[in-house]
Design brief:
Largest sheet: 7 strands, mixed
CATH architecture of one domain: 2-Layer Sandwich
Number of helices: 16
Distance between the termini: 55 Å
Number of strands: 23
Strand order of the largest sheet: 17-18-16-15-21-22-23
Structural class: alpha+beta
Strand content: 15-25%
CATH topology of one domain: Nucleotidyltransferase, domain 5
Low-confidence stretches: none
Oligomer: single chain
Shape: globular
Mean pLDDT: 93
CATH class of one domain: Alpha Beta
CATH superfamily of one domain: ATPase, nucleotide binding domain
Radius of gyration: 21 Å
Length: about 475
């Protein structure tokens, strides 16, 4: 018995087939082009997202019969508006990293609405989220707002767009985790909020139906082997499920294009006092669980930048050997704020910097500093989480492309002073929605079934001397404060 997962991410569109035991059987993937039409703008072609996703699914379906269910996970906050009559996007997908609405967010903050938004959504006013992206398209694409007011425009995050296309326009829906990232959804009342829609000038008629993470999202009849969509979740919540973080206080951190750390805080909504986000972790059978989240906009993307823009190496895997070729970073600090600083700083205008360079600095020091930055950024998140929750985590379950780098994992353990657990199956995002779809299709009973399938492959324990750790964190603090001015 197998389950197919669509994992539509920032840099690629993938389809992964999983066995009932949660092991990946086959993967198909296409790299997705990013466009940067202006400084701080990041876009994708929504039709490419669809075409690449369809191709990946068909490549797997053609080799396998009897697939039980389909699950979808996606890059969150990325915003697509399309004509509901033709299916054509009104504009490119505006990617979560895009900062074009920074001034709009700043103006809204000046009106004093941020506390209201945080109380209802758990989010802070930032161009990261979908609300201001939707308004930008409506206000800047000719005829878009008129079409929307006529009821001819649909909004969706990537999951919603894919569901609509897969079901040939029969289902316009999203799940609660993606809805919770729009800044238009009240996560306490669990509904689209009229007051928030007025603040952002978004017509409510264009918003999708919001469902549980395990629910009937329709039949994907466009596929050559029609599959029922039973599970949907935003990528970070899907990874939390794939990592089986179902108990209060459990924490996962994903190191992909960005870094996203989530801590399970149970069924009680709490507003962060330390500029973190409170988001929906999952909702099953109407029972909701919340998480504290810290979002870092650039993690693996910093290594891509070293590869593609500076040509320091040809393959990202070479970064580990370079980092280990020197004893330390020789005082070099890399603050990778290419698209601003995320939590807990929330400064969309900050820019990346490499500090502490001297004549003896070389490419190995810079690469090591870029990898070390992932631990320092995570420390900032963990420190805020512990102050918000009162929970001192003893272990973090990690995943994402960067955890293949043993230097990164060991440095995380050293700087955070906790155990780092790498799971046997690192495709946790796609695995999470495979589990959700499997619950919906009756393959699994509940989360206990999923927890029993989680296994650790490698553990990293702290080895760094306390004085070295303290000195490293002090240097990071000085550096990030300079960038954050």
């Amino acid at each position: 018995m197998t389950i197919l997962s669509i994992d539509q991410g920032t840099t690629s569109s993938r389809a992964i087939l999983f066995s009932e035991e949660g092991k990946p059987i086959e993967v198909r993937q296409k790299e997705l082009k990013l466009y940067y039409p202006h400084k701080g703008w990041v876009e994708q072609d929504a039709n490419d997202i669809w075409a690449d996703t369809l191709w990946a699914c068909e490549e797997i379906i053609s080799d396998h019969e009897g697939i039980k269910a389909l699950g979808i996970t996606n890059q969150r906050e990325t915003t697509i508006l399309w004509n509901k009559n033709t299916g054509e996007p009104l504009y490119n997908a505006i990617v979560w990293q895009d900062r074009r609405t920074a001034d709009v967010c700043s103006s809204l903050k000046d009106t004093g609405v941020e506390p209201l938004i945080q109380r209802k959504t758990g989010l802070l006013l930032d161009p990261y989220f979908s609300g201001t992206k939707i308004a930008w398209i409506l206000d800047n694409v000719e005829g878009a707002r008129v079409l929307a007011e006529q009821g001819d425009v649909l909004f969706g995050t990537v999951d919603s767009f894919l569901i609509w296309r897969l079901t040939e326009g029969r289902v316009h829906a999203t799940d609660i985790t993606n809805a919770s990232r729009t800044m238009l959804y009240d996560v306490v009342e669990q509904r689209w909020d009229e007051e928030l829609c007025r603040i952002f000038n978004v017509p409510m008629a264009m918003l999708p139906m919001v469902k549980d993470n395990v629910d009937d999202f329709g039949q994907a009849t466009v596929l050559s082997q029609p599959l029922h969509i039973w599970g949907v979740a935003g990528d970070q919540q899907a990874a939390m499920i794939g990592q089986a973080c179902f108990e209060k206080g459990m924490m996962k951190s994903t190191y992909g294009t960005g870094c996203f750390a989530l801590m399970n805080i149970g069924d009680e909504f709490k507003v962060s006092q330390n500029r973190l986000l409170t988001t929906v972790a999952y909702r099953i059978n109407g029972d909701i669980t919340y998480a504290l989240e810290g979002s870092i906009f650039v993690a693996g993307a910093a290594i891509q930048w070293l590869r593609d823009n500076l040509n320091i190496f040809k393959d990202a895997s070479e970064s580990e050997a370079l980092a280990l070729s020197v004893e330390d970073s020789n005082g070099v600090v890399f603050v990778p704020a290419f698209t601003g600083l995320g939590a807990p700083y929330w400064n969309p205008n900050a820019r990346a910097a490499i500090l502490g360079l001297t004549r003896e600095s070389n490419k190995a020091h810079i690469v090591r500093a870029a990898l070390e930055a992932q631990a320092f950024q995570t420390y900032d998140l963990m420190d805020a989480m512990e102050r918000d929750s009162g929970i001192n985590s003893k272990a973090i379950r990690v995943d994402g492309g960067l955890v293949k780098n043993k230097f990164v994992c060991q440095f995380l353990a050293d700087v955070l002073d906790v155990r780092i657990d790498v799971p046997a199956v690192t495709e946790t995002t796609a695995l999470g929605v495979a589990y959700l779809a499997g619950i919906g299709a009756g393959v699994y009973r509940d989360f206990h079934d999923i927890s029993d399938r989680w296994h650790v492959a490698q553990t990293y324990s702290p080895q760094m001397d306390d004085s070295v750790r303290s000195e490293s964190l002090s240097l990071w603090k000085i550096s990030v404060d300079l960038v954050n001015r």
